[in-house]
Each structure stands twice: as structure tokens, then as C-alpha cells.
Amino acid sequence: MLRALMYILPLALTIYAFIDCLNTPEDEAKHLPKLAWVFIILLFWVVGPIVWFAAGKMRHAPAGGRTPSEWHRNHRTQWVAPDDNPDFLKSLKDENKKDEAVLKDWEADLRRREDELKKREQGGEGDKS
């Protein structure tokens, strides 16, 4: 298994880097033209992808200059626990009412079927004796 992994992992990394390089706009390829990066990735298939990820592509922060983690730190919403949220509790009560109605219908149907079976058994026993 390890022997296969020694060949599969670099091959997978090469394929991923090749596709990433092809999908990268020309102006985001650093230091060399994009075509040169494609040849580096394919010719040096063990180290080429690592070099591409390390030095070949511009990595920049999203628009606004902040990373997602910085945005989340500054824009936290007030979180309410479910047992303190009146809308959630109301939805539970509504669901509970629906479940109770289904349960009552099921119990009534069950009682009706039991009564029918008792009547059949009593009618059948009366004929046999």
C-alpha cells in the first residue's frame, strides 16, 4: 500500500497543480509566464507542483483586504440558545400539536379495528358452540 501511495500521491498532486495552473488567470501567475509553469509542473512532476503552490500563484486576501476569520471576529451575530428562542419553542409546540392529532387518529383507528376483531371473534364463537 505504501509503495502505491509513493506514486499515487505525487501524481494526484501534479494533476491538481496542473489544473490549478490552467485555471489561473495569466496576470496571477508570478515570476514566469503561465506556459512556463505548465512545463515546470509536467516535467518536474515531483517538485513542480510544490513549487507552483509555493511560488507560482498569487495568493491574496479577498476584496476589502480582510481574511474570512477577521470578518467573523468583527461581525458576530447574537446567538440565542434554542431553549431561549421563543420562535423555536413555538415551532416545537406546533409540531407537538400535529403529532398529537396524528396519534389520536391512530389510536381511534386501532380501537376501531380491535372492536371489529372482538365482534368477529364473538360472532365466530357463537356459531361454533
UniProtKB/TrEMBL annotation:
Pfam families: PLDc_N
One CC-aspect GO term: plasma membrane
Record bears the keyword Transcription regulation: no
Domain named Cardiolipin synthase N-terminal: residues: 12-56
Region (Disordered): 60-85
Membrane topology: Multi-pass membrane protein
Main location: membrane
Compartments in which it is found: Cell membrane
Keyword Transferase listed: no
Keywords in alphabetical order: Cell membrane, Coiled coil, Membrane, Transmembrane, Transmembrane helix
Positions of transmembrane segments: 35-55
Residue ranges of coiled coil: 89-123
Protein name: Cardiolipin synthase N-terminal domain-containing protein
Organism: Streptomyces pristinaespiralis (strain ATCC 25486 / DSM 40338 / CBS 914.69 / JCM 4507 / KCC S-0507 / NBRC 13074 / NRRL 2958 / 5647)
